[in-house]
Amino acid sequence: MKKPNLFVCFLLIPLFFLQTIFAQQEVKNVIVMIPDGTSINLLSLSRWYQHYTNPEAKQLCVDPYLCGVVRTYSSDCPIGDSAPTTSCYMTGQPTQTGFVSMYPRKTMHDLVKIDSLLAYYPLATALEGARIFGKKSTGLVFTCEFPHATPADCAAHWYKRSQYPVIAKQMVHNQINVVFGGGNKFLTDDLRAELKQRNYAIFSDDLEGFRNNENPNVWALFEEESLPYSIDNDPAQIPSLAEMTSKAIQLLSANENGFFLMVEGSKIDWAAHDNDAKTMITDFLAFDEAVGAAIDFAKRDGQTVVIILPDHGNSGIVFGNRRSNKGYDKLPLDSFLKPLTRYTISSYKLAQLIKGTEPENVTNLFQEYHNIHLTNEELTVLYNTTNYDKSPIEKAERTAGIPLEYAINKILYDNRSYIGFTTYGHTGEDVFLAVYHPHGDIPVGMITNVEMNQYICRQLQLEGKFKELNNDYFAPHQEIFGGFKNVKIDSLGKERYVLTVKMGKNMLKVESYTNYAEFNGNRIPLSTVAVYVDKLNTFFIPRELANYFIKK
To answer: So what's the architecture of 32-318+424-440+460-471 in CATH?
Structure first.
């Protein structure tokens, strides 16, 4: 047997330790990028479409960093809703449909162990931990309206994702430095006044103001609700996701302690719900451009990790459908993708145009925007949809049973393409994972959603800190003031509550969903938002508030 070369062994030992130390080096900035509702099949379709329309583009920006898959699910179901899936990435706790960073109820079919005593307790998020423990700046970039599920998961706590007033107020009070996306109508006058009082720059449908702003604390919102799909967007009016990402990074990177940024390609999911393949692809490619912008910065910076992962799949989109049952292995790429190149607007936008169009002009819209001549049968399907008010068929007599958006996509894809769908809803397959890390600390293989939270926390130096965060900053008021005789909760109106605690001449007041309290009439800041949970008749607040009643 040949003896090992001792010289080589001595060389390898320090190399091993150097690699270990190198892999454990800390990063300063963490960027989490979520293409909402993106199935792995959409990744493949987008790559093929990009190459088909631009042969010079050999790969997606995300491709070199693909490293595994993520098993993402709710606490009680294998197919997740956006609220609980991103909640788990942010908090480490699987929760259930509609819950925004809040502990779930116990059910008869839980997939994980659930403590029924903790139901409806707020759960601290990675964004909050990065700000509190890391003193980092924080940012959110998205294409939906700002109180929507995924952005809300980072900076709010509630059990009903659709209750925007409660969520929006928490997000405004959660000290996020940079917020870019949609939702002007949800930033009410009182919320704008609160931001102005804190010296935030606020821009509403102001592209020039957004681009020229240098205030590190800024909200820039466009459109009343969500931003247009990428295929419909006018870049002279509304910035792309890539531009918003670059601007957010520019502002956040001024903090010497680093930053945490979440970027969401929100409406990939919305197009998937409509089964609109072309719009899914173009919105994903717009997201991929944002990935490119983030990784370009990370490579220059050398202290930034970029984590890209969807929250769940959607639509069951497939490259091949029942029309390709025979001869699938002889179909040229043209037959799959050429029809899509003719579609110039989203099916959502086409549906909006049809709604305002007389029946005799519907065929002209399809010809103008998609180069398609409708058959009489297809026109009849459109007339029979549930939401075409100008249809010549009375509503009571319509038979399609689907809205215009669904009917349009059935026309575009069922008989004119080889792209298929299994559902209008979410799907439960594993989603892709891609990571750029300057020091090579990259997870590989199959990773669970809980493990992804652990990985994010490790990058933020938050390992083992979540128990402390939840215990110290989201404590039930009964635990903090259990020995006090004069404690009450009053309603101040719709979705506004105040906790009042009195001891002798001292009085503390805490208003729900804000990050301040009043002690003897003086405003004091809170590290987190005060969350009043009506289900429990409980305020969840920082324990440090008890210190105001301790005699110095």
So the answer is: 3-Layer(aba) Sandwich (3.40)
pTM above 0.90, yes or no: yes
CA–CA separation, 281 vs 238, rounded Å? 20
The residues with which 308 forms a beta bridge, in sequence order, are 33, 434
With contact defined as beta carbons under 8 Å apart, do 72 and 35 qualify?
Answer: no
Beta bridge partner(s), residue 34: 264
- Total length of the chain: 552
| Terminal CA-CA length for the chain | 77
Q: What is d(CA 147, CA 167) in angstroms, rounded to the nearest whole number? A: 6
| Boundaries of every domain in the chain | 32-318+424-440+460-471, 329-417, 474-549
Domain boundaries 474-549, corresponding CATH code: 3.30.457.10
Residue 411 DSSP code: I
CB–CB of 237/207 below 8 Å?
A: yes
pLDDT tens column, 138-191: 999 999 999 999 999 999 999 999 999 999 999 999 999 999 999 999 999 999
The span from the CA of 35 to the CA of 288, in Å, is 9
Which runs of E-coded beta strand occur in 237-291? 259-265
- Amino acid at position 327, single letter: G
Beta bridge partners of residue 524, listed in sequence order? 517
Low-confidence spans in the chain with pLDDT less than 50: 1-4, 6-23
Report yes or no: 253 and 301 within 8 Å, Cβ to Cβ.
yes
8 Å CB contact between 359 and 383: yes
What pLDDT does residue 405 have?
95
Structural tokens at position 443: 């997870």
Q: Which helix (H) or strand (E) is 197 found in, with range?
A: helix 189-197
Q: Is the four-CA dihedral 104, 107, 110, 115 of positive or negative sign?
A: positive
CA-CA distance, 123 to 261, in Å (whole number)? 19
261-285 exposure pattern, b = at least 16 Cβ within 10 A, e = fewer? bbbbbbbbbbbbbbbbbbbbbbbbb
Nearest to 155 by CA among 179, 136, 134, 133: 179
Contact in structure between 230 and 344 (CB atoms under 8 Å): no
- CB crowding 482-496: b at 16 or more within 10 Å, else e: eeeeebebeeeeeeb
Do the beta carbons of residue 145 and residue 130 sit within 8 Å?
no
Q: Where are the alpha helices (DSSP H) in 384-488?
A: 404-409, 449-459, 466-473, 477-480
DSSP three-state, residue 179? strand
Tokens of 388: 């075409």
CA angle 192, 515, 187 (to 5 degrees): 20
Q: How far is CA 502 from the centre of its chain?
A: 41
CB 126 within 8 A of CB 457: yes
Q: Can you tell me the distance from the alpha carbon of 315 to that of 413, in angstroms, rounded to the nearest whole number? A: 13
